[in-house]
């Protein structure tokens, strides 16, 4: 990490702006130099990919240095694998989950003193000043309590809350970049506010401690294969979180597990997601791979900074939308999709029908009985032409709850796709959704 963390609005914007400018300029320069070679090689796509990778490296490095919202954005991109960006570029963003600059040792000591009025080696029997991991909001150190337990101590970057607030204030300054990607972009103010609220919540480690305790108590009997580390409240504050030290394999290492083991892990992750959504009405919403460790019969969940509680009425509408797809109820789909702000009140019915048929085809494999792996369909390719025909100008985006719900669903999809887990989708659904289905039937007279 640089000697002084950049938390100011101007310094953070200039860092990102410089990175984008350098990357864009280099991309243009390299493209000009290699244009003739493209004609010779007759492989311009490969050359274009190579140039984009070079440009991405510059931007990714800056995201890692800035931490906060910029680094979190990079991590969100990384879980998309090859669905949004070429897999070679998504793989670069994945480095943000593992490698980013750490804060100086003096800052670590100062943060512990400010929170506990003691030096690290007074508060703990042992404390390693070298971090074992650095992420978007804080970094993790290995330590040992005086009672003998080995713990992971997560320390928040100083002034990170200000940095995140400044990142959002700077958003309008990169509006031109967004406009290049989405010329007729909808009004996404509600989504931006949702992301901001989520990131600010992540900065309160007391809130995270409470979420850890909640999910641990709820999963204990229903999902004994899911391990959530113990927290030590006496060693926690808003800026420091102390948890049981746990070890396991990375997601990438699990790809070498047996098919039987991957099926077990996939089914466990899928069913715990359904239990959380439909029964607890609360989700863990930061599914990047760095927040998980695995054993052949265990899933270890490490980070509960980002969670989302859902209003029961929203979940009834969302469940109703899924039931419309399952039962081919287009008339009900029109009503519910408008409630959820997918469409305007005066939307042409043929446009809604196109959307309905596309979503239904995407969802159909998960309505089949029996056990089978996830369907490797790229939804962005499926919707490409539909979005071209949709006038986004002035259109509201869907309900803000979808930002974190979709983020969580997307992370689940990516893991199950990577494992090729054979899952009984209907069995899992029927275990956890029956109660809310009755509410849908009552509300919409199915």
Q: What structural class results from the helix and strand content? A: alpha+beta
Shape: globular
User: Termini, distance in Å?
Assistant: 57 Å
Q: If helices are DSSP runs of H or I spanning 4 or more residues, what is the number of helices?
A: 19
Share in β-strands: 5-15%
Overall pLDDT, averaged? 81
Level of helix content? 55-70%
Low-pLDDT runs of 5+ residues are 9-17, 19-40
Order of helices and strands: HHHHHHEEEEHHHHEEHHEEEEHHHHHHH
Largest sheet: 5 strands, antiparallel
- Number of E-state strands: 10
How large is the radius of gyration? 23 Å
Written description of the protein model:
This protein is an alpha+beta fold and 446 residues long. The protein has a domain at 212-229 and 248-446. The protein is 57% helix and 9% strand. The chain is built from 19 helices and 10 strands. The chain has helices at residues 9-41, 44-66, 68-78, 87-94, 105-116, 120-123, 160-169, 175-181, 189-202, 205-222, 251-254, 259-280, 312-327, 330-339, 349-363, 379-389, 401-419, 425-432, 434-444, and strands at 126-127, 133-134, 138-144, 150-156, 226-227, 240-244, 282-284, 292-295, 298-301, 307-309. The strands form 3 sheets. Strands 1, 2, 3, 4 and 6 form a 5-stranded antiparallel sheet that branches. It is globular and about 70 Å long. The N and C termini lie far apart (57 Å).
